[in-house]
């Protein structure tokens, strides 16, 4: 496991942009994600200065694979606010992406930007919660206990329209396979394999 963690940290350091905090890996401002090859599937890799930003960035990473987000406008009348929950960080990440995939499939809602309003992790002290910054998959930080992890989000975008939005690759499902959540000081990385 330590070898895998070391390899991920090396790869994350290699992808650390030198062109400024606001530039993504492809040189486009605001895009902090990439697609990695995986046998018969695709691995999403999103990052940010903390876990909240990484979670926000993995949403357009997935949806941009399904349609060109540069063609998607933000229609304020279609902005959605909702909550997602999980029993740990990995189940929260799964539920997070699964909810956006569900809304795309059932409501044809294309989210261009996900703005996390609240990111809560349970702690031993019932009176305390945190706008959290994460940890490794399945691991609890000192003082944490099992409980409900929740994200409240404001999703901005519009209804998918085939005459306006090009059809990309269909995402069939989110998977737990090789899911990784890494957090270091000043940077968090998410890796999720999607079934296409």
Automatic annotation (TrEMBL):
Q: Which InterPro entries match?
A: Archease, Archease_dom, Archease_dom_sf
Location of the Archease domain: 33-196
GO biological process entries: tRNA splicing, via endonucleolytic cleavage and ligation
| A GO CC term assigned to this protein in UniProt | tRNA-splicing ligase complex
Annotated SUPFAM superfamilies = MTH1598-like
Q: Which UniProt keywords apply?
A: Calcium, Metal-binding, tRNA processing
Keyword Transmembrane (UniProt): no
Keyword tRNA processing among UniProt keywords:
yes
One Pfam assignment? Archease
Q: What is this protein called?
A: Archease domain-containing protein
Where is the organism placed in the taxonomic lineage, from the top? Eukaryota, Sar, Stramenopiles, Ochrophyta, Eustigmatophyceae
């Amino acid at each position: 496991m330590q070898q895998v963690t070391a390899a991920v940290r090396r790869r994350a350091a290699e992808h650390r942009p030198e062109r400024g905090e606001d530039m993504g890996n492809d040189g486009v401002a605001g895009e902090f994600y990439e697609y990695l090859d995986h046998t018969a599937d695709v691995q999403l890799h999103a990052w940010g200065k903390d876990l909240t930003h990484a979670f926000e960035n993995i949403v357009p990473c997935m949806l941009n694979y399904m349609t060109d987000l540069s063609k998607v406008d933000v229609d304020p009348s279609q902005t959605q606010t909702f909550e997602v929950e999980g029993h740990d960080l990995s189940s929260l990440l799964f539920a997070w992406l699964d909810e956006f995939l569900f809304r795309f499939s059932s409501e044809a809602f294309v989210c261009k930007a996900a703005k996390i309003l609240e990111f809560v992790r349970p702690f031993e002290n019932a009176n305390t919660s945190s706008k959290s910054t994460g940890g490794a998959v399945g691991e609890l930080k000192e003082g944490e206990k099992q409980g409900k992890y929740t994200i409240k989000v404001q999703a901005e975008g519009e209804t998918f329209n085939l005459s306006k939005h090009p059809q990309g690759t269909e995402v069939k499902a989110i998977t737990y396979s090789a899911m990784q959540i890494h957090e270091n000081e000043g940077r968090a990385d998410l890796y999720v394999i999607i079934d296409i």
